Amino acid sequence: MIKPVKTGIGVFLFVLLFFGIFSCKEDEPTTPKAPVDAVAKFIGVWHVTDSTANQKYDVTIERHKLYPQTKVYLYNFSNLSGRIDGEVIGNTLLIQDAVTGTPGYTIDEGTGTWISDSCIDFIYTLNDGVVTKVHQAVFLK
Predict the structure, then answer these.
(1) Tens digit of each residue's pLDDT (9 = 90 or more) over 55-106
(2) Could you state, in order of their start, the residue ranges of all structural domains in the chain?
């Protein structure tokens, strides 16, 4: 009597194993998704309100010529002449030790956070050679 029960369990386990191995379909090949272009959302002409400096001006952001997938050029940043470089990481635009076209002025550091297709929130440190000041600016399209 004990033997048929053991045989029944053995057959059941064999059938379970058989269907577990051979019943799975082969995976369909998947097409890899194209990488997201993080830089694209920052490109364009932005209307800036710098609440710290109490100024309004436009900044143009363009793709970097040598590093178009990760870096940008910013023109007229902080209402200063010239061009500075920025690096895009996800939804953040970073500026580090940027020399502007206006003699004596540098952007020590800055972080722009992409909020939406029409808004970037920017905090940056402006150094005029005498005073270093933290600025907050909103970029709108």
Answers:
(1) 999 999 999 999 999 999 999 999 999 999 999 999 999 999 999 999 999 9
(2) 40-140
Instruction: Of 76, 80, 78, 108, give the one whose Cα is nearest residue 95.
Output: 108
Contact 48, 137 (CB under 8 A): yes
Q: Bridge-partner residues for 135, per DSSP?
A: 124
| Residue 19 C-alpha from the chain's centroid | 46
- What lies within 8 Å, CB to CB, of 43 at 6+ separation is 61, 62, 63, 72
Domain 40-140 sits in CATH at 2.40.128
Q: Is the dihedral of CA 120, 63, 103, 76 positive or negative?
A: negative
Pairing of strands 92-99, 132-140: unpaired
Residue with tokens 């895009």: 88
> Which pair of structure tokens corresponds to residue 20?
């577990």
26 neighbors 107 (Cβ within 8 angstroms) = no
